Structure prediction request, 154 residues.
Amino acid sequence: GTLDVVVRDRDHLARTLQLVEPAGLRGLVLDGSGVPISGARVRVVYNDSSRIIEPVTSSNDGSFELSGLLPGDVVVGAFLEGHGEGRHDAVLHSGATAELNIRLVHDVVCDGTVTDSFGGALEGVRVSLAADCSKDLWLSSTVTNQSGKFELYN
Prediction:
Protein backbone atom coordinates (compact mmCIF):
# COMPACT_ATOMS: atom_id res chain seq x y z
CA GLY A 1 0.00 0.00 0.00
CA THR A 2 0.86 3.66 0.06
CA LEU A 3 0.66 6.35 2.71
CA ASP A 4 0.31 10.07 1.93
CA VAL A 5 2.14 12.39 4.32
CA VAL A 6 1.66 16.17 4.20
CA VAL A 7 4.75 18.16 5.16
CA ARG A 8 4.70 21.93 5.68
CA ASP A 9 7.86 23.97 5.30
CA ARG A 10 8.64 27.23 7.14
CA ASP A 11 6.59 29.21 4.61
CA HIS A 12 3.62 26.93 5.37
CA LEU A 13 3.65 25.45 1.89
CA ALA A 14 2.20 21.98 1.97
CA ARG A 15 3.92 19.18 0.14
CA THR A 16 2.48 15.71 -0.09
CA LEU A 17 4.87 12.80 0.04
CA GLN A 18 3.69 9.35 -0.90
CA LEU A 19 5.38 6.58 1.04
CA VAL A 20 5.35 3.25 -0.77
CA GLU A 21 5.78 -0.13 0.85
CA PRO A 22 8.73 -1.87 -0.80
CA ALA A 23 8.33 -4.90 -3.04
CA GLY A 24 10.31 -8.12 -3.02
CA LEU A 25 11.35 -10.80 -5.49
CA ARG A 26 12.38 -14.42 -4.96
CA GLY A 27 12.75 -17.52 -7.03
CA LEU A 28 15.02 -20.20 -8.43
CA VAL A 29 17.63 -20.26 -11.18
CA LEU A 30 17.35 -23.51 -13.16
CA ASP A 31 19.27 -25.09 -16.02
CA GLY A 32 17.57 -26.24 -19.21
CA SER A 33 16.60 -29.53 -17.53
CA GLY A 34 15.04 -27.84 -14.50
CA VAL A 35 17.94 -28.55 -12.11
CA PRO A 36 18.69 -25.68 -9.67
CA ILE A 37 21.93 -23.78 -10.37
CA SER A 38 24.06 -22.13 -7.69
CA GLY A 39 26.37 -19.20 -8.34
CA ALA A 40 24.31 -17.51 -11.09
CA ARG A 41 24.25 -13.69 -11.16
CA VAL A 42 20.68 -12.41 -10.90
CA ARG A 43 20.00 -8.81 -11.93
CA VAL A 44 16.86 -6.65 -11.94
CA VAL A 45 16.47 -3.84 -14.49
CA TYR A 46 13.41 -1.57 -14.46
CA ASN A 47 11.71 -1.36 -17.88
CA ASP A 48 12.07 2.43 -17.99
CA SER A 49 15.85 1.93 -17.42
CA SER A 50 15.66 4.24 -14.41
CA ARG A 51 17.27 1.69 -12.12
CA ILE A 52 19.52 -1.32 -12.30
CA ILE A 53 19.64 -3.22 -9.02
CA GLU A 54 22.96 -4.58 -7.74
CA PRO A 55 23.11 -8.26 -8.76
CA VAL A 56 22.74 -11.07 -6.23
CA THR A 57 24.06 -14.62 -6.55
CA SER A 58 21.87 -17.71 -6.44
CA SER A 59 22.54 -19.91 -3.40
CA ASN A 60 23.46 -23.61 -3.29
CA ASP A 61 19.82 -24.63 -3.87
CA GLY A 62 19.48 -22.21 -6.83
CA SER A 63 17.35 -19.75 -4.84
CA PHE A 64 17.67 -15.98 -4.83
CA GLU A 65 15.86 -13.20 -3.00
CA LEU A 66 15.80 -9.42 -3.26
CA SER A 67 13.92 -7.06 -0.95
CA GLY A 68 13.40 -3.32 -0.59
CA LEU A 69 12.60 -2.89 -4.30
CA LEU A 70 10.44 -0.14 -5.76
CA PRO A 71 7.19 -1.32 -7.35
CA GLY A 72 7.18 -1.38 -11.16
CA ASP A 73 7.71 -3.38 -14.33
CA VAL A 74 11.08 -5.12 -14.44
CA VAL A 75 13.16 -7.60 -16.40
CA VAL A 76 14.91 -10.16 -14.21
CA GLY A 77 17.93 -11.79 -15.78
CA ALA A 78 20.28 -14.53 -14.64
CA PHE A 79 23.65 -15.57 -16.06
CA LEU A 80 26.31 -18.14 -15.27
CA GLU A 81 29.27 -18.83 -17.52
CA GLY A 82 28.90 -22.23 -19.13
CA HIS A 83 25.13 -22.28 -18.52
CA GLY A 84 23.96 -19.29 -20.56
CA GLU A 85 21.36 -16.74 -19.57
CA GLY A 86 17.68 -16.45 -18.89
CA ARG A 87 15.28 -13.53 -18.63
CA HIS A 88 11.82 -13.10 -17.19
CA ASP A 89 9.43 -10.14 -17.13
CA ALA A 90 7.83 -9.37 -13.78
CA VAL A 91 5.61 -6.75 -12.14
CA LEU A 92 6.63 -5.78 -8.61
CA HIS A 93 3.72 -4.67 -6.40
CA SER A 94 3.94 -2.54 -3.27
CA GLY A 95 4.01 -4.70 -0.12
CA ALA A 96 4.19 -8.00 -2.04
CA THR A 97 6.91 -10.46 -3.00
CA ALA A 98 6.85 -11.73 -6.59
CA GLU A 99 7.99 -15.31 -7.18
CA LEU A 100 9.49 -16.61 -10.41
CA ASN A 101 11.88 -19.17 -11.80
CA ILE A 102 14.49 -18.32 -14.40
CA ARG A 103 15.64 -21.05 -16.76
CA LEU A 104 19.11 -20.56 -18.25
CA VAL A 105 19.43 -21.26 -21.97
CA HIS A 106 22.75 -22.46 -23.32
CA ASP A 107 23.01 -21.39 -26.97
CA VAL A 108 26.14 -20.97 -29.07
CA VAL A 109 26.07 -17.42 -30.44
CA CYS A 110 29.61 -17.16 -31.71
CA ASP A 111 32.41 -19.56 -32.50
CA GLY A 112 35.71 -19.36 -34.28
CA THR A 113 39.46 -19.86 -34.21
CA VAL A 114 42.12 -17.48 -32.91
CA THR A 115 45.37 -17.53 -34.87
CA ASP A 116 48.60 -15.59 -34.97
CA SER A 117 49.67 -13.56 -38.02
CA PHE A 118 51.15 -16.73 -39.57
CA GLY A 119 47.91 -18.74 -39.21
CA GLY A 120 49.09 -20.78 -36.21
CA ALA A 121 46.46 -21.66 -33.60
CA LEU A 122 46.66 -19.77 -30.30
CA GLU A 123 45.76 -21.75 -27.19
CA GLY A 124 44.62 -20.13 -23.93
CA VAL A 125 43.43 -16.81 -25.38
CA ARG A 126 40.45 -15.30 -23.52
CA VAL A 127 37.56 -14.39 -25.85
CA SER A 128 34.60 -12.42 -24.42
CA LEU A 129 31.18 -11.20 -25.56
CA ALA A 130 28.88 -8.67 -23.86
CA ALA A 131 25.37 -7.65 -24.93
CA ASP A 132 25.87 -4.18 -23.41
CA CYS A 133 29.49 -3.32 -22.76
CA SER A 134 28.64 -0.08 -20.95
CA LYS A 135 26.67 -1.99 -18.28
CA ASP A 136 28.62 -5.30 -18.35
CA LEU A 137 25.36 -7.15 -19.02
CA TRP A 138 25.22 -10.81 -20.00
CA LEU A 139 28.93 -11.31 -20.35
CA SER A 140 30.09 -14.59 -21.85
CA SER A 141 33.73 -15.53 -21.79
CA THR A 142 35.84 -18.55 -22.65
CA VAL A 143 39.42 -19.58 -23.43
CA THR A 144 40.60 -21.06 -26.73
CA ASN A 145 41.51 -24.76 -26.78
CA GLN A 146 44.81 -26.16 -28.12
CA SER A 147 43.48 -25.81 -31.69
CA GLY A 148 42.68 -22.12 -31.07
CA LYS A 149 38.93 -22.85 -31.27
CA PHE A 150 36.28 -21.26 -29.03
CA GLU A 151 32.51 -21.17 -28.55
CA LEU A 152 30.66 -18.35 -26.79
CA TYR A 153 27.22 -18.86 -25.33
CA ASN A 154 24.53 -16.36 -24.52
Summary: The CA atoms of residues 21 and 140 lie 36 Å apart. The chain has no helices and 13 strands.
